[in-house]
Automatic annotation (TrEMBL):
The keyword RNA-binding does not apply. This is Serine protease, S1-C subfamily, contains C-terminal PDZ domain. SUPFAM superfamilies: PDZ domain-like, Trypsin-like serine proteases. GO terms for molecular function: serine-type endopeptidase activity.
């Protein structure tokens, strides 16, 4: 073979080496497709999980981070139970002695009259519509007129205390303010034991209301009220809404106990009738009580009010639409005298336990004497009630008590009690 032929053959082999077709095996091709598919599937799953998690957690995140509308929390300062109290300076000015001149007497009551007029700015008239159609006329029967007290005011809402017995069956509620404005309201929360309800008036951007003659009531310390102090009531009195009357406190040493509740009462020499609902003020024009919403059969019945200081924890929870904590006991304080007379340990004697209550389900019994709650000593039923209000429903507390096992033999027991809600 000639040299030329050898070179041609070599070039042909060299060319064929670099131009041969590379065929990918099917197994390799499918493996890449499957790998790509897995990546896409994982991306879809991850995205779906992230989307679901965000959707599920958004309400909680919104609440924690205060996204959207900011909720305004109403806080009411609490009062210390009387233990060496000082008298109100304003009340001292209104205490008249025999040397008080007629002119000073007139000036005093002129100031009181001006104060009474000023407090009406915080009083509203409320009408509840029940949508009851009369037998002969196709008209709405609206016989639910009562009074209310403004306790909080913001740019977009009014918070008002009123009578639950009037509000509970209402289909619609309207509020007449002191300046003449009428606005719709809704029932926010209620307490059956005291008969107190909280209603709210929401204000939209389009709402137009004159705030010049509207004010928020100041809740004062009712523990400072003494027998003979000048007081006045504003609200629904003797069947008339938007009424005002004055008098004196005649008894401040009475109280009322209920389930998880203890209230001091203020009785006055003013009169009331069935269906009345008013608010009690001191000489400074500050709220010291809310009249009891009991049915009154006696036309000459005296105005009796719950002291506002004992109601403040309840009102604060209701105003913020929080659940009212529930233990379920009625009790009596074991005073030094009772302890010595009946040979009892100091604490709170359980007189009654509500059926199905957390107290009953946890093993507490009538006759037990509660001595501590979460390590804090309790000596009065009022202090026990105040302690319960500090917790929320679902919280577990440790109640230590003494239970009588023999004639004079008391043994210490400890119970874990999970609080409920009313």
């Amino acid at each position: 073979m000639s040299e030329d032929n050898k070179l041609d053959k070599h070039d042909e082999e060299e060319f064929n080496l670099y131009t041969e077709n590379i065929v990918i095996k099917k197994s390799v091709k499918y493996r890449k497709v499957i790998h790509f598919g897995k990546l896409m599937l994982e991306a879809i799953v991850f995205g779906s999980v992230a989307c679901f998690a965000f959707t599920a957690l958004y309400p909680w995140m919104s609440n924690q981070l205060s996204l959207g509308d900011n909720k305004i929390i109403i806080s009411i300062p609490k009062d210390e139970y009387p233990d060496g109290i000082e008298e109100s300076s304003t009340q001292d000015l209104l205490t008249l002695d025999s040397e008080t001149s007629t002119k000073n007497f007139q000036n005093t009551f002129q100031l009181l009259s001006e104060t009474m007029v000023d407090t009406k700015k915080s009083i509203v008239t409320i009408t509840a519509i029940y949508n009851e159609t009369t037998e002969f006329l196709n008209e709405n029967k609206s016989d639910g007129d009562t009074s209310g007290l403004i306790i909080a005011m913001s740019d977009n809402k009014f918070t008002i205390l009123t009578s639950y017995s009037v509000m509970k069956n209402a289909r619609s509620i309207s509020v007449l303010f002191n300046n003449g404005n009428v606005m719709s309201a809704y029932l926010s929360s209620a307490d059956v034991d005291t008969g107190i309800a909280v209603i709210c008036v929401n204000l939209s951007e389009e709402s137009v209301i004159d705030r010049a003659n509207i004010s928020v009531a100041k809740l004062d310390n009712s523990y400072l009220i003494d027998q003979g102090d000048i007081v006045f009531a504003a609200g629904k009195l003797l069947g008339n809404t938007a009424s005002v009357n004055y008098g004196t406190s005649i008894n401040v040493k009475i109280s009322k106990s209920g389930i998880d509740s203890y209230y001091n009462l203020i009785s006055t020499n003013m009169q009331q009738k069935s269906g009345d609902y008013a608010f009690l003020f001191n000489a400074d024009g500050n709220v010291i009580g809310i009249t009891k919403n009991d049915s009154v059969d006696n036309p000459n019945a005296e105005v009796i009010a719950y002291g506002i200081s004992d109601l403040k924890p309840l009102i604060e929870k209701m105003s913020n639409n929080e659940e009212i904590t529930y233990l379920g006991i009625t009790g009596e304080s074991v005073t030094n005298t009772k302890a010595a007379t009946y040979n009892l340990p100091m604490g709170v004697y359980i007189t009654e336990i509500a059926e199905g209550s957390p107290a009953l389900l946890s093993g507490l019994m009538n006759g037990d004497i509660i001595t501590t709650i979460n390590g804090q000593a309790v000596y009065t039923f009022k202090s026990l009630c105040d302690s319960i209000y500090k917790y929320k429903s679902g919280d577990t507390i440790i109640i230590e008590l003494k239970r009588k096992l023999g004639k004079d033999d008391y043994k210490i027991f400890s119970f874990n009690v999970t609080l409920g809600k009313k």
